[in-house]
Amino acid sequence: HFFLCFLMYCWVLADPVCGFFLKNCTIRGNLSNPSNMKVPCYNRNLEVIPIDIPRKVSNLDLAMNKISKFEKLDFKGLSNLKILNMSRNQISQVDDGTLGHLEALQKLGLAHTDSQPCQTICFRTILSLLHLDNNLITTISSSSFQPLSSLKTVNLTKNNLYNMKEVQPIVQLPHLQELYIGSNRFTSFQSQEISNTSIGLRLLDLSQNPLGIVRITAYILPYLEVLDIAYCGQLGHMKWDVLDRSFLRNVQRLNLSGIEMSFERMAMVLQTVSSSLVHLRLHDLVKGSRPKIKALTDVACHIPTLSVLRLEYNNIGNLSEEFLQSCKHMTEVDISNTNLSQLSNFSFRPIEQISTLKFGHNMLSSVPDATRNLPRLKILDLSFNINKLGCSDFYNLTGLTKLFLFHNQIPNLPGCTLKLAGNKLSSIRKREFQSLTSLKTLLLFDNQIASMEDGALVNLTELKLGSNKITQIDIRNTVLTGLPLLISLDISCNYITYVNYDKLNPPPFSHLPSLEKLRIFSQRHYQESRTLWGKGSTWNPIEFYVEPKLFYLEPKRVLQRVLLWGQPKNPFRF
Q: Which residues form a coiled coil (predicted)?
């Protein structure tokens, strides 16, 4: 009994910030701050909802279990619950009023549950997001969504809906912004079937439906910004009937990937949104020959507002100088997975504003010359392609911030130099060069560097740190540690100075066992010249000009070259 009481006492005194366990679940967050409390119970083989869920929980995840029914008192008392995920359960029974206690609920996940809407959600709440995807829903009662006036996003993807009139109760919700009804059995989308007045939808996903026609005869979608009709149509005969371009005048993102539609009708679609389109996907046009893809690209690139063009999964093969000639306004072009093996050196010359290029999963053997001299390029993806790199491959890409080279068969790298001079770097952290294990030469002069973490550049043999902010304290404690292979070092034009002539212990370069060349001239101060050398030094006799107040040196190897000038006419020999 004493032992049991002791355990209970320890449980009460547990730190409320740390996670602890209830049966089959974990509690994460701060017990005193219920807005952050999460209870993940997913994939635990649960058959019923746990009875010991903390009353202050705000996020409860019961996905991927074996729960088959909701009982009336399962969620009683969870008045703070905002997010409930019940996806991937086999729910066959729901007692009336089961979720009625959840007055704060905002997000509800019921995907893969074989649920019917009114079984589970007929209650008044502030719910804003509802997932009902991957169920067996064929019809939607007109009363199912009436209490859910706060809904902003509804996902009904992969159900068995076939009549567009079924979604009418949903699109009439006053705050609805996003509707996902892809992968159902709709054969047409006609505006009069869903509404006679304008609705507030901003995103409409109709993808992967066997649509035979899209007909919009009224101004019911004035706020629509995203339209997805990818992989729609039947046997190339999908029709497009929009009486007035102004009906879709705010569409900015359009997905026409894999669509079963003739070239002429696709051109009509593009013309309909030509006053506003910014982002266009034309993936996987299986029946599109290379000339058809080129023709569609020309139509798209004449849209003055278009800036992002994605052409993945098309059979382009060879990117000629003319292919993107019309795309002068593009800032992003994605031609991944297009069997690309050749590019003209001038493929991107017309695109002066290009900032993102993606070539992933192609058949390029090396970095194409076409990517050079693109000063505005920020992101370059060459993953799953090349088998060699050259030192000038990224010549003049001065704006590049992200370079993707993973999953390439590059057996070796040439002895290239990484030049980062003339920037505003203040420190070098340990992991910033972790992938550059072959880096030997690094130029960092003319920055503002005062510290470098140990282990940041373990394989480096040449380092130039001239014109930075290194002091005598930095040089002993942080900057020059973890460089066991360093042969040549330049720390000229920094702030290294000492107030007396005492021997320095430990010597500042004793942790650079491979050092052979040292440049340390022109430190930014002016005092009497003098240097102190350690006993047993193996330095070769060299004439040099010494900078004032240099430190005691005790090298472990013979320095081949030492440049220490700065104050003229103070020659020393040793």
A: none
